[in-house]
Amino acid sequence: MTPRSRRTLRRILSLMAGMVVASVALSGCLYAQIPESAPAVTRTPDTSGVSGDLLPYYAQKLDWTACGAGFDCTDVTAPLDWENPDAGDISLAIVRHSAGAAAQGSLLVNPGGPGASGYDFVADSLGYAVGVDLIEKFDVIGFDPRGVGRSTAVSCLDPKAMDDYLYGVIDEPRNTPEWEAALTARDKTFAEACDANSQGILPYITTVNSARDMDLIRGVLGDETLNYLGYSYGTFLGATYAKLYPERAQRLVLDGALDPSVSGTQVGTTQAIGFESALRAYLSDCLTTKECPFNGTLDEALSDFRALLSAVSRSPLRNGDGRMLSVDTMVTGVITAMYSQQSWGYLTKGLTAALQGDPSVMFALADSYNSRNPDGSYADNTAEAFMAYNCMDYPVEDDQATEDAAMKVLEAKAPTFAPYWQGPDPCEVWPYPPVGVREPITASGSGPIVVVGTTNDPATPYEWSVSLAKQLQNGVLVTRVGEGHTGYNKGNSCVDQAVEGYLIDGMVPEDGLRCE
């Protein structure tokens, strides 16, 4: 049986797209008063070293308009195909909160994904995206990468069809040839819809092209070098930028790193183990509370939790809106809450309700992951863009021995999630072959690149941050000891001071700094 490594890679990593923002809503966090925006200082575009065929893009004049209290917005025109600029143009949407004359330049921010809206991340949760000190010192820039949101976007299915794709229950027995065939047919319908409705952009939705877009944004904003804060998948985008433009990659912070050298199979396997570890931490904490639906020892609670998953797998639960909670949707909801320790209480409510036959809270968690609104509409195209990027970025893997070995590791180290971590790879039916590679990134010639890793981060396990910091010629590792996804602006002053001191003053943290 084919392990679900590629499928898991695409489904689980998509949590990175929304959960940095969604954790704000789930936890109800409050942040310090955001400084008011000041009139932006116009800088001359930086066109140094730009070839003649790309000069019109780098020299373009931006038309900024107000777009909400304290923000202004514009669109940047970029080539569809960076290798052939005559092939047509795309539009990149950006939003700015300006520090005015005090600004040291622009700070580009990416929340992850691939497929997350950096525009919404900054416009809707500026104080969560960056700390107050950064807001006071930089023009904070959120942008929608190509294929995402307000930029020229991937488009696949209407809301009802997306519901069927993301939440539909497969009636065939799990892990049978019939079940796999049904999933493949559903994936094929999705892929064909993406190709038909995305204006021919699918072959160009790659991280390399997005990194080139990011350099264009830097240039038209008038910055000679890049200041960048990337979370989760945004670390891969940032590392790719440093690989392509090391001389311009001078102050980069990569938080919650994705190791660019590991394969899709390794990513899926490592993440499953990470979520298993986070689940054990959650249940250990849950058992100390009166509200916990489980009791006894940790092993007994794990056994009861697995029994609940098995029960839902056999008999999905009907929601008030008619949707059926499958075990896959339930796993999505559980994993969603693993991204922030502050969301554990919400998970406890969801599991308690599910044990009583009410799936509404688990659906709310899964809906936040999928950017689905209560009225059935979708807030963005995260799931669609996510699939487009990963199907182009990750090389095809067809080594059965490697997949079998990965499944054995999953069963041994992630026994709770292993039964739900397998299935056909949806990228096998994607209409275009992948062009990405998986290899170490050294970014020789870059400035210091600060990599922040959290010791029990389930989505981007700590070992990936350690690995990326070692790969980078000028990598600097900062460790946050704790739970949850990413480390900056999470209440750890040691991490915050290291990140902000570097971005603002160029003070490079001690390599190996450990923040308890």
From TrEMBL:
Q: Which residues form the Peptidase S33 tripeptidyl aminopeptidase-like C-terminal domain?
A: 421-515
Membrane-spanning parts: 12-34
The upper taxonomy is:
Bacteria, Bacillati, Actinomycetota, Actinomycetes, Micrococcales
Q: Which Gene3D superfamilies match?
A: alpha/beta hydrolase
Q: Where is the signal peptide?
A: none
Kindly give the Pfam families that the UniProt entry links to this protein: Abhydrolase_4
| Naturally occurring in which organism (per UniProt) | Microbacterium suwonense
A GO molecular function for this record? hydrolase activity
Is Protein biosynthesis found in the keyword set? no
User: Has UniProt tagged this entry with the keyword tRNA processing?
Assistant: no
Q: What is the official name of this protein in its record?
A: Alpha/beta hydrolase
According to its UniProt record, which protein family does this protein belong to? Belongs to the peptidase S33 family.
What InterPro entries does the entry give? AB_hydrolase_fold, Pept_S33_TAP-like_C, Serine_prot/Carboxylest_S33
